[in-house]
Amino acid sequence: MNKRIICFSLLALALLVFSGVVMAEGVLVFSDSFEEYAVGTEPNGWTLVHPTAGEVVDSSFVSIPDGNAALRLFSTPNDNGEVFIDIPEVKKGKLVVDFYQPSSSRDNINFEVRNGDSRVVGVFITGSGNVRPRADGVQTANLINLRNDQWHTFVIRWDVDAKTFQVAYMEGDKEVAIADAGKTEFGVDPAGIGLSVSRIAFNVTRRDPGKEAFIDNIRVYDLAK
Ligand SMILES: [Ca+2]
Fold it and tell me: pLDDT: is 25 or 62 the higher one?
């Protein structure tokens, strides 16, 4: 091999490695696509706020965006259909979750990153899919509509030292920031200021009769690593 070919090969290799580094954002510290559990059961490791708050389902309930199973959140007249799980501590991170609200049995849903029971970041989505992040703990107006009866991939980024978070959704491979009058950065919940994130929670609002929503393909990345 002559010198020119070796130089070119090294350059190509460097570009390949560099693009890999740029594409991989942070370190994956938690993931669950609900593939490891039996359909019809609750997912081991998750805490359910009431016995039927979270059930692993297959495509007989809903289309499945990742693999063969997803999680059905289900509320009762008295309790939110909420599941949560503790994760490794993340000060600067990203949560990615696929969600689906069926128009036939929909209600408000909440995605939250917490420290224990304290909310650090919360995003409220109305039954019809209007997204309202909790900016400084208070719901914004409807910022965007992610419509019922289809899967959406939602992204929450947080930085507890900066006391800020951002929200986005995916359009194919492209992440689209969700803005409030041009502003894409929001203040974390007052209850969560100074706290790391160590728990993620998902729920559908209590209602009579109970309502449902579906989630799948949950990933948490540590962006400081
Ligand atoms: Ca899955």
Answer: 62
